[in-house]
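FW: tagging you since you asked about this chain on Friday. Here's the raw sequence from the shared folder, copied in full. Didn't touch anything.
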Amino acid sequence: MSTQYDLILRNGLLYDGLGNPPVAGDVAILGKKIAAVGNLGDATAKQDIDVHGLAVTPGFINVMSWANVSLIVDGKSQSDIRQGITLEIIGEGSSEGPVTDQMKQDRINRQADIKYEIPWNTLGGYLEYMEKRGIATNLASYLGAATLRINAVGYDDRPATPAELETMKKLTRQTMEEGALGLSTALIYPPGSYADTQELIELSKVVSEYGGIYISHIRNEGNSVLSALDELITIAREANIGAEIYHLKATGRKNWHKMDQVIDKVNAARAEGLQITADMYTYHASATGLGATMPDWVQDGGFTAWIQRLKDPETRARLYKEMMTETDEWESSLQGSGGAQGVLLRSFKSPHLKPLIGKTLAEVSEMRGTEPAYTIMDLIVEDNFNVGAVYFSMTEGNLAKQLKQPWVCIGSDSESQAPEGVFIKSGVHPRAYGCFARFLGKYVRDEKVLPLEEAVRRITSFPAQVRKIKERGQLTPGFYADIAVFDPAAVQDHATFAQPHQYSTGTTHVFVNGTQVLKDGEHTGALPGMAVYGPGYRK
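HL: got it, structure written out here
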């Protein structure tokens, strides 16, 4: 007796996710899994969808997502689902657990447009909460090293004591068993930046025991990018762990040429046998808070201490001098962007400052009659918030060069949004709406930087294999039915820096765990996403 499937996608151009050339065929879904792939002929299903002329691929994996909060407000994950993304991986540097009651209160106090409760204490608790709440995409997370540090050390700029390090190791073991994919760091942001290399090696050794990876926003992406990369390679070697570079880049015009050396270093490490990989977004501008224009010492002790320093005339004078002086000691996003004209303000907490969204720092400084460095200090104090900004610090030429490397995958480095509700209260980097579509449209179809079958591998099986994620990332029977159907000739990003809240187009259907979430380009409202756990997970 032949199997009746739940659904058959017929007559598609099938990309298996492994980099093989596409073949014409069908894909059958039964329950949450892919049941059959190939020419299914007379096979029957409760539903047939003709996808003739369309690419059928595994769902895309966003390896660098900030959807941890946006999904609480709107579980539909619209801007990502409409690009074919079926798995969000969160947790750059910090994670949603483990958190103490004080840490939870601190986070609530720092909330801006999006308000939410924090009923969980552990990372595992957060993932369970989100799955039960209902999300369109699957969700996985790293354990943030800064979160460990706050638990054990607080916000102080000092080495961890042996006892504090043991506390961090214990929490690491617990969280890896709760399903974290590995350890993440963001080494330009306090308090994560206060950790020394040895501390990160010791924590990574614990993660390695569970088969997890180390992933890092390296300590410097500008003047000292090469030495910062050396640190990541050292951690990988000493801890016997795979290591990935978050959002690969070389910032600042004087450093653009260093990308060739970065690539050479990675290739040499890989030749040595180290599992070094990288991810990136498909834009020449980054986005983070205005705090990235300041040296780390100013945030010693946490946010309240930072604000008090920014109000002190003597400290302001010292800070101004350091912000305006070229240095290799720390990375200045202001310097890397070529000055105030290269900094675009994108989000504020206070309603009276929101009219400044979309203006450059240079424009606001002129309006206020203050030097850009002092304008930054004033805005942070007035907003009582690490004001969001876009920094134009990279070159398009390097983006194509990076994409050609077989060890590079894609991450948006942004929340998943929608052009409605609370999301339109602030600006956003266009990568939130267009990162993957831009990859497939601009770089793959239009510029032919790499063939489509290889591009699909980079955003499906490759990131899954690096992170030891089981049964996802391939059009293979027995794997979860996370599937994207799109028109390679039509896939296109539309979000711009001036008008970022615009969906990408060209993706027709998306399935998550066998449930259709996008139908004929529109969201169905379904929320079938699951928590996805790392290799150390213990039920």
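FW: The chain has a mean pLDDT of 97.
HL: agreed, and The CA atoms of residues 34 and 180 lie 25 Å apart.
FW: great, closing this out.
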